[in-house]
């Protein structure tokens, strides 16, 4: 009897703490004292460096929005290492130029920097003009630029909504339509890739403009995969889980206290790395994946499924507790 009470209260507290964890940053902080770090972290060490064969992107041009920082920079570096000529575009020309020089000096391949605010369709048109003049039309287009910040939805202004959806959804649409039209006219094939996020599927509170816009990006890409395959254009999507980049974490986890809660729910026991996204992106944009279109690949160490299954919290039950549970279940007769 005492064992049953202890078990029930322990399970109840596990479930209660799960709710707390989702509810607030303070919940995350208090959980930190209760939970041991996931032992799985000792497995699944990240492997860096380019995975594909050297020269896989020789004579190819890759255009990467938001290529000056974070995941965009990592993807550009990998493609450049594999032989691509790269063009990176975003608002901050000085950042782009510095990144372009650093990557180019590391790989020996050309990296061009083009200023562009993807929210402005005229600016996108000018950027694509410049891209064509520099390298010709690209073989690879990665829609990676984004903006996001955590905010209770009741505090969102129309301007905040517009800013995020303009960068993420409209910006992706302007780049995709402008390049798509020109590629179709030139009868040139290309691989498009969009970087979204796992909550594009589920939605997520506190990042609602981003969730809505990323879901829109996925619908755009899947629709065009169906419509424009006949023009030699394919469209795929990567949904990364949490990966520490300055841009993402400074606006999504400003106090740093959410990171441990994230680690607690990732079965692989660690965050992802920019190189892991870069290698997957390189494969999905390469000729090795030319039969892949309309695909959505989640790369998150198992975080999404771990949050989704209602019984997954039972991983916190110890072997001794399982012995008691099993005895209770076996002793139950009828319904
Ligand atoms: N890191 C993660 O944990 C994570 C998880 C899931 C998904 N993602 C996705 O991964 C992608 C890259 O994010 P990140 O973590 O690498 O963050 P990041 O370094 O902040 O990258 C965002 C990039 O977008 C560019 N950008 C922002 N507004 C723009 C605009 N109006 N026009 C053109 N470019 C603009 C920024 O450059 P400028 O400031 O120079 O414009 C920056 O280079 C994003 O799509 C993000 O949603 C990241």
UniProtKB/TrEMBL annotation:
It catalyses: a (2E,4Z)-dienoyl-CoA + NADPH + H(+) = a 4,5-saturated-(3E)-enoyl-CoA + NADP(+); a (2E,4E)-dienoyl-CoA + NADPH + H(+) = a 4,5-saturated-(3E)-enoyl-CoA + NADP(+); (2E,4E)-hexadienoyl-CoA + NADPH + H(+) = (3E)-hexenoyl-CoA + NADP(+). Its EC number is 1.3.1.124. GO terms for biological process: fatty acid beta-oxidation. One of its GO terms (molecular function) is 2,4-dienoyl-CoA reductase (NADPH) activity. It comes from the Eukaryota. Keywords: NADP, Oxidoreductase. Signal peptide: none annotated. GO terms for cellular component: mitochondrion. Belongs to the short-chain dehydrogenases/reductases (SDR) family. 2,4-dienoyl-CoA reductase subfamily. Auxiliary enzyme of beta-oxidation. It participates in the metabolism of unsaturated fatty enoyl-CoA esters having double bonds in both even- and odd-numbered positions in mitochondria. Catalyzes the NADP-dependent reduction of 2,4-dienoyl-CoA to yield trans-3-enoyl-CoA. This is 2,4-dienoyl-CoA reductase [(3E)-enoyl-CoA-producing], mitochondrial. The lineage of its organism: Eukaryota, Metazoa, Chordata, Craniata, Vertebrata.
């Amino acid at each position: 009897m005492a064992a049953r009470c202890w078990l029930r209260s322990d399970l109840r507290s596990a479930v209660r703490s799960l709710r707390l964890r989702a509810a607030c940053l303070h919940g995350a902080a208090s959980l930190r004292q209760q939970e041991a770090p996931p032992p799985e972290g000792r497995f699944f060490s990240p492997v860096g460096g380019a995975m594909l064969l050297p020269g896989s992107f020789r004579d190819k041009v890759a255009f990467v929005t938001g290529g000056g920082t974070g995941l965009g920079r990592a993807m550009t570096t990998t493609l450049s290492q594999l032989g691509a000529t790269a063009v990176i575009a975003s608002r901050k020309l000085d950042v782009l130029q510095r990144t372009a020089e650093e990557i180019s000096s590391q790989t020996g391949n050309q990296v061009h920097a083009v200023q562009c605010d993807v929210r402005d369709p005229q600016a996108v048109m000018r950027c694509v003009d410049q891209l064509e003049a520099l390298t010709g039309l690209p073989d690879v287009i990665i829609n990676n630029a984004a903006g996001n910040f955590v905010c209770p939805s009741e505090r969102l202004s129309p301007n905040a909504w517009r800013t995020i959806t303009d960068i993420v959804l409209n910006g992706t649409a302007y780049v995709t339509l402008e390049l798509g039209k020109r590629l179709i006219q030139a009868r040139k094939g290309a691989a498009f890739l969009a970087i979204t996020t796992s909550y594009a599927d589920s939605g997520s509170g506190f990042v609602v403009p981003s969730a809505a816009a990323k879901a829109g990006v996925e619908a755009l890409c899947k629709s065009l995969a169906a419509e424009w395959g006949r023009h030699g254009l394919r469209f795929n999507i990567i949904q990364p889980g949490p990966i520490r980049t300055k841009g993402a974490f400074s606006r999504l986890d400003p106090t740093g206290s959410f990171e441990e809660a994230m680690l607690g729910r990732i079965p692989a026991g660690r965050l992802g790395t920019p190189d892991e996204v870069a290698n997957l992106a390189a494969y999905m944009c390469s000729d090795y994946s030319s039969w892949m279109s309309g695909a959505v690949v989640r790369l998150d160490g198992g975080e999404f499924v771990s949050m989704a299954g209602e019984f997954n919290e039972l991983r916190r039950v110890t072997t001794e507790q399982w012995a008691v549970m099993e005895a209770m279940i076996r002793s139950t007769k009828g319904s």
